[in-house]
Design goal:
The protein is mainly alpha-helical and about 120 residues long. The chain has four helices and no strands.
Length: about 120
Amino acid sequence: MDAAMAAFRDRARDTNLARVEVIEEALGHLQSGVLREEARLTARRAAHSLVGSAGTFGMREASELGRTLEAILDDATGAVGPQVRAGRGLELVTRLRVALGGSDGSDGSGAPNRPGGGSDSW
């Protein structure tokens, strides 16, 4: 990878990590029962943008985690309670940070390296 492309990827990673902060903050509010609709929508947009950005750079696990977080944030009135959704989302945020840092425990293909493979679903 040439230097310009590496710099572009680093900027995208930094932007995506900032998006993770927005998502995490919203999930914290969801967990405590005080998530405002505006904050939920902002976090959902951040997750959606992260999905595309991570996918552009071949970070499949990060993209899949972002997609699951987007679904959690979309499910404003779902059958699963907000504390459960928030707890699951916060677990995914931890995994997402690792995946975006380049140390995702994969074989380098961007595919998760876990028994059974596959992606998380909500």
